[in-house]
Design brief:
- It is a single chain.
- This protein is α/β, with parallel strands linked by helices.
- It has two domains: about 160 residues, P-loop containing nucleotide triphosphate hydrolases (Rossmann fold, 3-Layer(aba) Sandwich); about 60 residues, no CATH class.
- Helices cover about 35% and strands about 25% of the residues.
- Helix 3 packs parallel to helix 6 and helix 7 packs parallel to helix 8.
- The structure holds adenosine-5'-diphosphate (ADP) and magnesium ion (MG).
Length: about 240
């Protein structure tokens, strides 16, 4: 089976500082794949590379078999990649409705956009009650839902999420994980970056572990949950099964 997304031998730099060392990973269509790693391991940089916000010095990103490294971010989004960035990055002064419609800015099929708007609100009924509210006044969990809903408005085949549960109350953490599963169930492939391995591995099919810019471990969620290296480094001794 060919991967929907693949990163091949990516080397990324910030000036003289190297952030990725021959980074390689694959995301199969239909899956939830997580990229785990501690602070400053290069997770957000991976997102930037996929979305064309940062150009690697060498290496290739392929989406659906086509090379996308080198394209602009709007071109990459138009190919079918949606993004839920770190810390949500909503348009705080705009309403929920306006934020959602911004997610469809690259689309020209107005009729389908209207249908998707209804479909997305069906997935996030809570947002329907908040359509006229300014996004900046919502709770963290609600903002995360707006960011996810906004990404879905672009009708992505792949959605990339950077630490979607960060800073949320436990109730919203569960809700967001459930929504990621629901979105995946609707046929959207998910690539998520997480510092919290035990949360991500609850819903992911497959995971990679990044350490200072290098993939040091890869496996199914089950394999990773039982791997002593993961348990010690990311799950804490308590999680030992
Ligand atoms: N804009 C930047 N300029 C310089 N160095 C950066 C920048 N962004 C990230 N880095 C460095 O790149 C490395 C990876 O960062 P990042 O991808 O943000 O890690 P993570 O998301 O895993 O916490 C870190 O050492 C970080 O300090
Ligand atoms: Mg980060």
């Amino acid at each position: 089976m060919t991967a929907l997304l693949s990163l091949e031998r990516i080397n990324t730099f910030y000036g003289a500082v190297q952030a990725h060392f021959d980074l390689a990973l694959e995301v199969e269509a239909g899956r939830i794949v997580c990229l785990l790693g501690g602070n400053a391991s290069g997770k957000s940089t991976t997102m930037k590379v996929i979305l064309g916000l940062l150009r690697p010095r060498s290496g290739t990103v392929r989406f659906d078999g086509m090379v996308i490294s080198g394209l602009t971010t709007p071109q990459i989004i138009r190919r079918g990649i949606g993004s839920v960035p770190e810390a949500r990055r909503l348009f705080a002064a705009m309403t929920v409705r306006e934020n959602l419609l911004m997610g469809a800015y690259a689309r020209r099929d107005a009729g389908a956009v209207a249908a998707d708007y209804e479909r997305v609100l069906g997935l996030f009924p809570r947002l329907r009650e908040r359509l006229a509210q300014r996004a900046g006044t919502l709770s963290g969990g609600e903002q995360q839902m707006v960011a996810m809903a906004r990404a879905l408005m672009g009708r992505p085949r792949l959605i990339c999420m950077d630490e979607p549960t960060m800073g949320l109350s436990p109730l919203y953490v569960d809700r967001v994980l459930e929504l990621i599963r629901t979105i995946n169930g609707e046929g959207v492939t998910v690539f998520m970056v997480e510092q919290n391995a035990s949360l991500a591995l609850q819903i992911a099919h497959f995971g990679y572990v990044l350490q200072t810019g290098r993939i040091v471990l890869a496996g199914t969620a089950k394999e990773l949950l039982h791997d002593p290296r993961i348990r010690d480094a990311y799950l804490g001794g308590r999680q030992a099964a």
